[in-house]
Amino acid sequence: MSSKVALTGNEALAQAMRQINPDVVAAYPITPQTAMVQTFSQFVADGEVDTEYVTVESEHSAMSATVGASAAGSRAMTATAANGLALMWEILYIASGTRLPIVMPVVNRALSGPINIHCDHSDAMGARDSGWIQLYAENAQEAYDNAIQAIRISEHKDVLLPTMVNLDGFITSHAVESLEILADEDVKEFVGEYQPENYLLNADNPIAIGPLDLQDFYFEHKMQQAVAMGDAKQVILDIAKEYKELTAREYGFFESYKLDDAEVAIVALNSTAGTAKAAVNNLREAGVKAGLLKIRVYRPFPAEEIADALKDIKAVAVLDRAESFSTNGGPVFADIRSVLYDIKANVEVVDYIYGLGGRDIKVEEIESIFNDLQEIIKTGQVENRITHFGVRQ
Amino acid sequence: MKLKEAAKTSERFTGGHRLCSGCVAGPVTNLIMRASKNPAVVGAATGCLEVSSSIYPYTAWKDSFIHNAFENSAATVSGVEAAYRSLKKQGKMEEDFDFIAFGGDGGTYDIGFQSLSGAMERGHDMVYVCYDNGAYMNTGIQRSSATPKGANTTTSPAGKVIAGKQQYRKELTDIMAAHNIPYVAQISPFKPQELMKAAQKAFETKGPAFLNVLATCPRGWRSRAEKGIELTKVAADTCVWPMFEIENGEWKLLYKPRKKKPVEEWLRQQGRFKHLFKRGNEHIIEDIQEHTDKRWNYILERCGERQ
């Protein structure tokens, strides 16, 4: 039996963590994630979970202790945002390279400097190549659902990779939304007992984790990691199917919103997708064939599936909430454009870098982006391949 | 620990590792592991001990071993220990374990200092062992905050105008004692039974324990390989490395030389101090002597010994 509740995104994630009941959580507070770990600490203090909560002195130690706890053979989680994620950077690669199924909510926030505590995706986008699975969520419901599915995805024997569960700072983490949370026993049953094959706390079969891996083996281990990331795709779909049976909520690699007959489309992640849906609705009423592709699974990147979904669109705008400073557009743009090149699709793709440091994006602004796309179709000309949207000149 | 008792313990850090000839980190590790009475999870910071003892697909450790990174062996082992407490509390495991984190002075005094302080403050039931060879030896003898004053290292070279490292070493043992953890010891391997006894105490302590062990590095100290253990005795006899423990706040001296020797005896046997004996550098040796005396008197006072 699920129940309808009004929670902030942070509270929803703290509830997910309570229901998952990890053996160890090692976390450090950082805005805008703080309420999540505070709420969870209260569950620990009230004996509502079996978790040992390690109040580490930094995010570097948060990820380090989580790696230790996971390698020990326990189910271990942490959570962070922005600079906290940046401080973990070194150990992110060690967590994935060691094939530890850690699940970590990341409340997306702009990276310093200058310091800014509000939403953008510069934190998670920088970690896109760290070997973590990355899930994104439009709202608190999706973030909650992703967290629970992430445990199963990460721990699957064909995967054994860590997962970041992303949600937008403040917009999703602090706004109160109405969502359905599962019954505790349903989550317990869905995630199951964690039973690792090899782990440190096994005196009968001691193992060495993290040895020096030189020219003769490192490459093979990296290859295995790449294969696992590829195999994660099917696992993600299988777990989503199972989750749908439990919740009637459907998840895939991405959500196609009014995309089938669309001529112009936007690609977006996280909460902006909700705003974009409103824009699509308005334009549809005005007779414009507008659509949205909302990415849920960004790593592994569902390249073929996205290419297939966008192949008949005439003009696509990618919304990137991160500046990669490549001078060639944002990270999502680079990925999307690359897959469309592969299938030789006759589609123009443009990039809108927007919303950095928490700057709002409104429905009418997204409508104006759709207007730009229509103009591209009409003229056959792309005036600006990359636009820094809404920035003062 | 009695020699007979020590001889009965089993070897858990095996031969075949790739530490240099004469490296004292090896025997220190061997002796400490022998003092553990439970299966253990060993963590090691990136460094000589780590790169020499666990090269895939081999390991010199008979116990479970984890290497994570350079600056986080304390945080990593604290995570392992938290997992153990959680699983035990939930009735998912029965067995007792010891938890040990090893780090060199680089991984302990410097880059891993915050992680160590955090783990000690949180009170994890673990033993942290620093094998202090007084520089970043694994990367080729760069100075650390444990490098003694005057030492010639590759980042504090003895040059025409600067005579090696300019600063005195950081007294990390005291800093660990200031964490008010139940057991802290600064020891040396020339007294193997004392070392094992301290390690045994550390393992038996409920809560965090810290061992700072002097470990000769013949490459970095520019000393003879066969003199490794002997040099740690010279360090104790010249009082540059006093041996003491702090058990529940009580300071106790573990070794008092019959006759305190001048620091020159310590300095002269190591090539890293060679330049100090050049004309014009006499004052540096005098400074080192003065500093050593002051420190020794402080230790005597803290331990309630007569000066």
UniProtKB/TrEMBL annotation, chain A:
Residues 16-239 form the Pyruvate flavodoxin/ferredoxin oxidoreductase pyrimidine binding domain. Keywords: Oxidoreductase, Pyruvate. It comes from the Bacteria. GO terms for molecular function: oxidoreductase activity, acting on the aldehyde or oxo group of donors. Residues 262-366 form the Pyruvate:ferredoxin oxidoreductase core domain. The keyword Oxidoreductase applies. It comes from Orenia metallireducens. Gene3D superfamilies: 3.40.50.920, 3.40.50.970. Belongs to the pyruvate:ferredoxin/flavodoxin oxidoreductase family. GO terms for biological process: carboxylic acid metabolic process; response to oxidative stress. This is Pyruvate ferredoxin oxidoreductase alpha subunit.
From TrEMBL, chain B:
One of its GO terms (molecular function) is oxidoreductase activity. The keyword Lyase does not apply. The keyword Protein biosynthesis does not apply. InterPro entries: PorB-like (IPR051479), THDP-binding (IPR029061), TPP_enzyme_TPP-bd (IPR011766). SUPFAM superfamilies: Thiamin diphosphate-binding fold (THDP-binding). Keywords: Oxidoreductase, Pyruvate. PANTHER family: PYRUVATE SYNTHASE SUBUNIT PORB (PTHR42897). CDD domains: TPP_PFOR_porB_like. Residues 46-213 form the Thiamine pyrophosphate enzyme TPP-binding domain. This is Pyruvate ferredoxin oxidoreductase beta subunit.
